[in-house]
Specification:
The complex is a heterodimer.
Chain A lengths: L1 H27 L8 H16 L4 H24 L7 H23 L14 E4 L2 E4 H23 L1 H11 L1 H6 L4 H27 L8 H14 L4 H21 L8 H16 L14
Antiparallel strand pairs in A: 1-2
Chain B lengths: L2 H19 L5 H18 L11 H27 L6 H18 L4 H23 L6 H15 L5 H4 L5 E2 L3 E3 L2 E2 L3 H24 L1 H11 L1 H6 L4 H27 L1 E2 L7 H14 L4 H17 L4 H18 L3 H10 L40 E10 L2 E11 L4 E5 L6 H9 L6 E6 L2 E2 L5 H6 L2 E3 L12 H8 L8 H5 L3 H21 L14 H13 L5 E5 L7 H16 L4 E5 L3 H7 L2 E6 L2 E6 L1 H6 L1 H8 L4
Helix pairs in contact in B: 2-8, 3-8, 3-9, 3-11, 3-12, 3-13, 4-5, 4-6, 4-11, 5-11, 8-9, 9-11, 9-18, 12-13, 12-14, 12-15, 18-20, 18-21, 22-23
Classes of the chains: A mainly alpha, B alpha/beta.
């Protein structure tokens, strides 16, 4: 039971990354390999504000989210928008460029030392029916729930949200109907940045340290979740996140560390290969990439 | 461009052709030479035979640089030729290093076997990863490999089964028994010879059907399949070869540094750096990529503290190049030196399309040479194609007798191209039978149907546009190749002979078209009419049983389209081909076809001789609306 709950909470954070990946993929058919690295980079900003300037966590967190949103927007404006007509492979390579760039900067400035970010709320938690849930886990659950519901409502009930969906379904038709393609692209990338920072902030108390590449596991979990969900489905990404989190927690709990250390990462690889073999369109994916 | 300049370009390109013909070594001889070098030179290498030109640690850096050059060739083969991304190449390098390390330390085997084992393991791992990911079109390999790379680093390589905990594996340069070579200069010679070998294998890939298949797949999987290339198999082959090379590179790196573990030196940043090297230098350009790998690795290792910053710079360059010049710096330099020729489209209106070449028929094991029975060559019975809720082709039956030209007309969106895709195997049929000479083919893949003798053109010209005219004629002969992939990789006699034959036939075809001066131009630089005639001529080099032409007059100037009618009649009368033709240009169809089918909203609404169709009421309704 404890394992299940831990898995669900980690999974809900993976879902945030998966939502970011799915949102960008849905709107622009681009796989964003920088999805977790943007937030990792801006977490150093939080560290700097909270540790060096002794500001409250929430200020640092908001600053990180703002910075990550800005990175998403700037990258979209400088790179993605100039490549509207380029092959999607090329644009995907550009996101690998962003991933490398953020990671390279982290390595150049912060390599070798482990940085500690103060916890969001004071440690401790409550025990409900034999299951211990810490305050930061409660926080994660609450924030993820709010974000997911808010995003769903936004996409379903606002004109702009509907336009985002339409452009995902049929870019040409949507553009003929006057959907502002540039604004949609900017929105999805800004959103991707914000989701990235949020996910990193929420999982940081579990990981415990900040170092270059510390959140690779988060990226892998989110990517696996997005694939399980079908890459272009937002509800799929969410459910995929939860499923991946639970499987990962179970594998970690049952496989001995000595045989395969960090077996959860290997489990992700197995899940991905399995999904591609058996159900490449994912749980809720609309169309598969399968050829006739 | 003036006449004189024009003539200059022609002369230059002729000279280039001559140079290609009279190069010093043939493909085959170069390969034999390197094999001989490897066998003769290696046992002669000892520390005492090496001149002491540089310090040991300089040799050490060079050794690492050469290993990275091999890794870059490996990724270039995958990313540059097939356009598939691997973000976990470091994982493949690590697999090779661990394989060779275990072989030489735990099993006390010679490094020769270690290196061979590294290649086998690298290839096997790549195969297993590629099998699920490459069946699909899209960038699934990127997803799988990025997770693989991190799983290797943080989990798999730390397993006690491989390394006895996180301790890692020592990498001995064991020559034989307990004899080791510790000299870095000796190892540099070994590394350079291995680099030369990998380089030649890569050259062989490019010069045989493997490379042409890879590059066509990168551009357009449907076109590749129509030329008879099994797309999934070739993507998997590319990744497997790349995996073998990566395994070798990893083992070379490992034997240089003497010890590897899960993090050093093959961490995930190395995978990213390899992508940066290949993309920034120029994907698909071997020399540029090798040069970039050496530069990227050697420059920082001679200057203290530069390594981190070279990575920042590399990542920035990757974003910048991909955005402004996705073909990389080498391509940019190439164009600065020799500006691309303006497209010939301006002259499109006046050009005469040359007669289609009459080529000597290739030797080809056909099950049945023309049997003059009642069976039509192509017979389609009750075929339907559905996309979700939409029925694009609804219960269509048609037949094409051998030696005829049959036309298929209909308004936009009638389902003509879908019907073609279903016959050639690019879309799956919901129901119905398709038979070629009485043999049912509806369950075969596109490439299998192509090798049975169905050749097809595409509305938007089904050629590999980045390849030259000559390369496209070579590509078209894909299914005639009598050699295996291994024979191609090593350029064994059968492959060398077959390729020479292909080149001869390609040159004949080009000469027959009178396109000699365009032979080495990328197809995309040709005019619409020229591309079309090259496409049709390419279809003919394999002497197909049935030629499917999808709107050949599309994108042609009216004068050229008129000229096309004569070429289509040539197909039947002079070349004896059977043709099924989709056309929008109704006069062209009525002028050339023996029999015409009319499709509207997915259903056949009329069929008959051209004269009957021209007078048919429902055809007129379909084209001009009911109220005529």
């Amino acid at each position: 039971m404890q394992v299940l709950v831990v898995g669900l909470i980690a999974g809900s954070i993976y879902a945030l990354i998966a939502l970011g990946i799915a949102l960008v993929y849905k709107a622009t058919r681009v796989l964003n390999f920088a999805q977790a690295e943007i937030g990792t980079g801006t977490l150093y900003f939080t560290w700097w504000l909270c540790t060096r300037h002794h500001l409250p966590w929430i200020v640092g967190a908001l600053a990180s989210i703002a910075a990550a949103t800005a990175i998403g927007l700037v990258f979209e404006a400088l790179v993605i928008r100039k490549m509207m007509t380029a092959p999607r492979v090329t644009v995907t390579v550009a996101t690998i460029g962003l991933f490398s760039f953020v990671l390279a900067l982290e390595l150049a400035f912060f390599a070798g030392t482990i940085y500690l970010v103060p916890p969001p709320i004071h440690p401790g938690g409550v025990r409900i029916g034999g299951v211990f849930v810490s305050w930061s886990q409660w926080l994660a659950l609450g924030v993820v729930g709010l974000v997911a519901l808010g995003l769903a409502a936004f996409l379903r009930y606002t004109d702009f949200g509907l336009a985002v969906q339409a452009s995902a379904d049929d870019p040409v038709a949507a553009q003929l109907m006057g959907t502002p393609r540039a604004r949609i692209s900017a929105f999805t990338w800004g959103m991707a940045g914000a989701l990235s920072a949020l996910a990193v902030l929420l999982i940081e108390p579990t990981v415990g340290v900040l170092s270059p590449g510390a959140f690779n596991g988060l990226f892998i979990g989110g990517l696996t979740a997005a694939l399980v969900g079908g890459l272009n489905s937002l509800p799929g990404a969410f459910i995929g996140g939860l499923a991946v989190g639970v499987v990962e927690a179970e594998v970690k709990a049952h496989l001995s560390f000595n045989v395969i250390p960090s077996s959860n990462v290997t489990a992700m690889l197995v899940i991905v290969l399995g999904v591609l073999l058996l159900r490449p369109q994912g749980l809720l994916g609309a169309t598969a990439g399968r050829r006739a | 461009m003036t006449m004189a300049e024009d003539a200059g370009v022609v002369v230059a390109s002729r000279e280039r052709t001559e140079k290609r013909r009279t190069r010093f070594w043939t493909d085959r001889q170069a390969n034999v030479l390197v094999a001989a070098l490897l066998f003769v030179a290696l046992p002669l290498l000892t520390e005492h035979a090496m001149p002491k030109l540089l310090e040991q640690h300089h040799y050490f850096n060079l050794d690492v640089g050469v290993a990275m050059a091999v890794a870059a060739i490996s990724l270039n083969l995958l990313l540059g030729y097939t356009g598939q991304i691997s973000l976990g190449h470091a994982g493949l390098l690590a697999a090779g290093a661990f394989a060779s390390g275990i072989m030489t330390s735990r099993w006390h085997a010679s490094m020769v076997f270690g290196l061979l084992f590294a290649m086998v393991v690298g290839a096997a791992v790549a195969f297993v990863l590629g099998l699920p990911a490459l069946r699909l079109s899209g960038l699934y390999l990127g997803i799988v490999t990025v997770i693989f790379g991190l799983a290797m680093q943080s989990s798999i390589l730390r397993s006690s089964l491989l390394s006895g905990g996180s301790a890692g594996v020592p990498m001995f340069r064991r020559v034989w028994g307990s004899t080791m070579t510790t000299d870095n200069a000796v190892f540099l010679v070994v590394s350079l010879l291995l680099l030369l070998g990998v380089w030649l294998v890569d050259v062989n890939v490019v010069n045989t059907r493997l490379g042409r298949a890879f590059r066509t797949i990168r551009e357009n999987e449907a076109v590749a399949a129509a030329f008879g290339i099994p797309v999934t198999r070739y993507k998997l082959l590319a990744f497997t070869i790349s995996g073998a090379m990566a395994g070798l590179a990893g083992a070379m790196y490992g034997h240089t540094i003497g010890f590897v573990n899960n993090e050093k030196p093959f961490d995930s940043t190395m995978s990213l750096m390899l992508v940066i090297i290949v993309m920034v230098a120029g994907a698909g350009r071997r020399l540029a990529v090798v040069f970039a790998a050496l530069l990227f690795w050697l420059f920082p290792s001679f200057i203290e503290g530069l390594h981190q910053w070279s990575y920042v710079l590399g990542a920035f360059l990757l974003m910048a190049t991909v955005r402004t010049h996705p073909d990389g710096i080498a391509d940019m330099l190439h164009h600065m030196r020799r500006p691309p020729r303006a497209d010939a489209d301006a002259a499109d209106g006046e050009e005469e399309l040359p007669a289609l070449p009459q080529l000597p028929a290739p030797v080809r094991a056909l099950e049945s040479v023309v049997s003059l029975t009642d069976t039509p060559l192509l017979d389609v019975r009750g075929m339907s194609v559905r996309f979700g809720g939409l029925t694009a082709v609804d219960d269509v039956s048609l037949s094409v007798p051998a030696g005829s030209v049959v036309g298929l007309i209909g308004p936009n969106g009638a389902g003509k191209s879908t019907l073609f895709n279903a016959i050639s195997g690019l879309v799956r049929t919901e129901s119905g039978q398709i038979s070629l000479r009485g043999k049912e083919i509806q369950d075969l893949r596109c490439d299998q149907r192509a090798s049975l003798g169905i050749a097809r053109s595409f509305q938007h010209v089904g050629l590999a546009r980045d390849l030259s005219v000559r390369e496209n004629f070579l590509l078209a002969q894909h299914q005639l190749a009598p050699y295996s992939d291994i024979e191609a990789l090593l350029m064994l006699p059968r492959a060398a002979r077959a390729e020479a034959e292909f080149r001869e036939r390609a040159d004949q075809a080009i000469a027959a078209l009178g396109f000699e001066e365009m032979a080495h131009m990328p197809v995309r630089n040709l005019s619409g009419g020229q591309q079309r005639i090259v496409e049709i001529a390419c279809l003919l080099v394999t002497a197909p049983e049935l030629v499917l032409l999808d709107e050949p007059s599309a994108g042609m100037a009216p004068a050229a389209a008129e000229n096309l009618a004569a070429r289509l009649r040539d197909l039947r009368d002079a070349l004896g081909r059977t043709v099924l033709l989709i056309e929008h240009n109704v006069p062209l169809v009525l002028d050339t076809c023996d029999y015409v089918y009319v499709l509207d909203a997915g259903r056949l609404i009329a069929e008959g001789a051209p004269a009957e169709i021209a007078a048919n009421r429902s055809v007129i309704d379909a084209y001009f609306g009911a109220a005529v």
